[in-house]
Write a structure and sequence with these properties.
The protein is of the alpha/beta class. Helices cover 34% and strands 24% of the residues. The chain has an 8-stranded mixed β-sheet with strand order 1-3-4-5-2-6-9-7, with helices on both faces. Strands 8-10 form a two-stranded antiparallel sheet. Helix 1 packs across helix 5 and helix 2 packs across helix 4. It is globular, with a radius of gyration of 17 Å. The N and C termini lie far apart (45 Å).
Length: 247
């Protein structure tokens, strides 16, 4: 049975932003989400139990505790929530996952920020960031000065299902699409998401020096998860992709 098990019910939020960190192309969402949780030492707020989530248990180094693979962390002072996932969601389960989370999102009156990597080969130019939105959240992108997409495209995987749920249910949601390395974890793309996306959308100033200084360490630490995604079905991870209809 799908449910969100709130652990820290003493935390109170006022229409918070929720940053989604599902594994996807370049692992940009996961790297950004993990960075927020670690930087602000966020509180383990809730566990996510959906039928679509693999039934596995997660443990950390130097810690005997066991946790479910998908969790929500909170920071009441910054009015911020982060969805952190240690496993991919299979494409066949994406719709159920979106339905499971979407109902709870409506109860909390939050605005989700969905993050998706757009596969691009690395060059000397910094990754470009684009913003898409549903409902009234689209105006947030204009206020933040985030560019609109430069070409037609789609977002697939569980992140795409979550955005589709937002459209179908008239829910406010923001999507951040960033050019990302198609083969390896991309801390630079995650830094762009934070500095040009999340910092611009909210009053929260997230430092990113650590993302830059530890880029190689972060890349190596995320490589095992990236390999798991590459070995899975091609459409298992969330990603953005162009739709060149007339080519």
């Amino acid at each position: 049975m799908a449910r969100i098990n709130v652990l820290a019910d003493d935390l109170e939020f006022d229409e918070p932003l929720l940053v989604e960190g599902l594994p996807g192309v370049g692992l940009v969402g996961k790297i950004a989400a993990d960075h927020l949780v670690e930087t602000f030492e966020m509180t383990h707020y809730a566990n996510v139990h959906c039928e679509s989530i693999p039934k596995v248990a997660v443990y950390r180094d130097a810690d005997r505790s066991v946790h479910p693979p998908v969790r929500i962390y909170g920071d009441a002072e910054r009015d911020l929530l982060v969805l952190q996932s240690d496993v991919p969601i299979s494409p066949g389960a994406a719709t159920e996952f979106a339905d499971c989370l979407g109902d709870w999102f409506d109860e909390i009156s939050l605005t989700p920020v969905y993050i998706s990597g757009l596969p691009r080969e690395k060059d000397d130019e910094p990754p470009a960031l684009y913003g898409i939105g549903t409902g009234d959240a689209a105006s947030m992108l204009d206020d933040a000065g985030i560019d609109a997409p430069s070409e037609m495209g789609l977002v697939s995987g569980p992140t795409g299902a979550l955005l589709s749920y937002a459209v179908e249910n008239d829910q406010n949601a923001v999507g951040l699409v960033v050019e990302s390395d198609p083969q390896f974890p991309d801390p630079e793309a995650a830094r762009v998401v934070v500095t040009e996306g999340l910092n611009a959308l909210s009053d929260v100033a997230v430092p990113t020096d650590d993302l830059v200084d530890r880029a190689e360490e972060i890349r190596e630490a995320k490589q095992r998860l990236a390999q798991r995604l590459q070995n899975a079905e091609n459409d298992e991870s969330s990603q953005a992709q162009p739709l060149r209809m007339y080519q």
